[in-house]
Amino acid sequence: MAKIVSKKADKEKKYVAYIGTYTHGSSVGIHIYDIDLKEHRLTERSVVPVHNSSYLTKSRSGQYLYSIADEGVEVLRIEKNGDLTPINKVNIDGMRGCYLSTDVSGRFLFVGGYHDGKVTVVHTHKDGRLGSVLDGVFHQGIGSVAERNFRPHVSCVIPTPDDKYLCAVDNGVDQVKIYQVEPSGKLHL
């Protein structure tokens, strides 16, 4: 959810919510809602088409919204009024991801792949554009519960506060793998 502060004379705060959805029926992407705190109400403002926008995260600067999209990631600029403007999309050379995070410096976008057990690093530009895929690591193995853990499932990727490591939760192999993140974006277990 992004908070937008209006420039009204009464200094009333305005809030906007972004909700990503799988694409089917009337759900075609990212739904933008205005939040009325006094009335406890969400009012849909618009929908930005992004195919299977199942997970969203904001950039560290708060200027961009990253979204999962089929076989890749899409980035949108957050306008002053809370609207979204698509910038670009990149393919992550694998199946659709399930989790997104950014490093503290804002240079990398990390993608966790539940269906293919892959951790992907995408370069992010200062102007908001997504760059090339810098690294991609497929996990291997199986976990202790055969009915659930018959292959890797990366469900979360989060950098440590010092930006030196990336923690990748894999509930398919019952492990949290810790990667060192090189300045080039390469991952080392």
What does this protein look like?
- The protein is mostly beta strands and 189 residues long.
- It has a single domain, classed as Methylamine Dehydrogenase, Chain H, CATH 2.130.10.
- The protein is built from no helices and 16 strands.
- A four-stranded antiparallel β-sheet has the order 1-2-3-4, with no helix packed on it.
- A hairpin with a 5-residue loop joins strand 13 and strand 14.
- The protein is globular and about 50 Å long.
- It starts with a strand and ends with a strand.
- The N terminus is likely disordered.
Give a concise summary.
The chain has about 190 residues and is mostly beta strands. The model is unreliable at about 1-10 (pLDDT under 50).
List the helices and strands and how they pair.
Elements: E1 2-5, E2 13-20, E3 29-36, E4 41-49, E5 56-58, E6 64-69, E7 72-78, E8 84-91, E9 99-102, E10 108-113, E11 118-124, E12 130-138, E13 154-159, E14 165-170, E15 175-181, E16 187-188
Question: How big a fraction of the residues is strand?
Answer: over 45%
Q: What is the residue-mean pLDDT, rounded to a whole number?
A: 90
> What's the CATH topology label?
Methylamine Dehydrogenase, Chain H
Q: What is the name of the CATH superfamily?
A: YVTN repeat-like/Quinoprotein amine dehydrogenase
Low-confidence stretches: 1-10
Q: Report strand order across the widest sheet.
A: 1-2-3-4
Overall number of domains: 1
Characterize the largest beta sheet: strand count, sense, and whether it forms a barrel: 4 strands, antiparallel
Tally the helices: 0
| CA-based gyration radius | 18 Å
- What's the CATH C level? Mainly Beta
What is the terminal-to-terminal distance? 32 Å
